[in-house]
Design brief:
GO terms for molecular function: magnesium ion binding; O-succinylbenzoate synthase activity. The protein has 359 residues and is of the alpha/beta class. 36% of the residues lie in helices and 21% in strands.
Amino acid sequence: MGANLNKACWHWLRFALPLRAPLPSGGRVRQGGVVIVEAEGMRGWGEVAPLPGLSLETLEEAEQALKACICRLPNQLPEHPELLAAVLKDVLRAVPASVRWGIELALAGWMAAWTGKRLDAWLAPSPLPVVAVNALIASEADPSALLALREAGYSVVKLKVGRQSLAADIQRVRQVRAVLGPKVEIRLDANRAWKLSEALAFAEAVADLHIAYLEEPVKNVEDLAAFAHRSPIPLALDETLAAFPEQPLANWAFARVVVLKPMCLGGVFCALERAREAQALGMQVVWSSAFESGVGTRGVLALAAASQSHAAAGLDPYRWLAADTVWPPLALGPIVSVPEVLGQKLTCNQRMLMHGFSA
């Protein structure tokens, strides 16, 4: 059985959301677009928002690819997730990653509504009812801000490193541990900042702080195995997965953690497949948004619940937004109720959306 989208209407709405703190690239506005598919009285929501410094495509390139791709979508689509994934994999093969994510998320959301289910329950039969969230520590956060996160109930935090000297990074991590105490899990992300020797020196210097993992420590992908085998801190992969989408995870079995950003990996279904592949190898799966609006963030939450990953998800970048594309704002915090957030009916925040095109 399938769904007929012959009379579906697609809408593309651009946004430029102000931020409470700068992006890692330095930008103070998050740009992108919401893609909505309407058919049979139901809506599916997706987001296309390539992130400068992370995505390969620009927003303008993504918009043009989206417009061309919508015209090629089949009118008849299967309602089962695995069958829909197979159809879209062929149709969207050469489409930029952020566009695949937006289209698949919109279609998956519409299909879930059409079958009378929440997105997480449509994707998997037994999704998690709650998902924990790790707090993203701002680079300028002082001890009072760190204490506020702990008092708010966050038991996992993430800190960016590699943007200053090794000595300064080491001192900063030690400060964070001293303020937060021994019970809060600390994750670190270097965004490929270091040479192998620097990464190992850093890992040795903070080994006594019980760091959960260090994400993408080295510039050269060929040094990842050496780091994993010699470092006292577990290795996590992120950008490497997006850079080598066809490589089996078994090639990186030395990594303990995979950080999955569906916007960078290229869609709902390939990200979910990566999660299953990682879990079969005994890797921890950490889901993460990429400073997306409420639409994309909801999608990542649905995937985290559907995959049954109990690791705290990286949904806290949503807190960076001073405004959102949808209303009401998502009810996110240290622990997120999946039915509450995904069961909430969305409406467009017209103040923050500009019409792009309809098809």
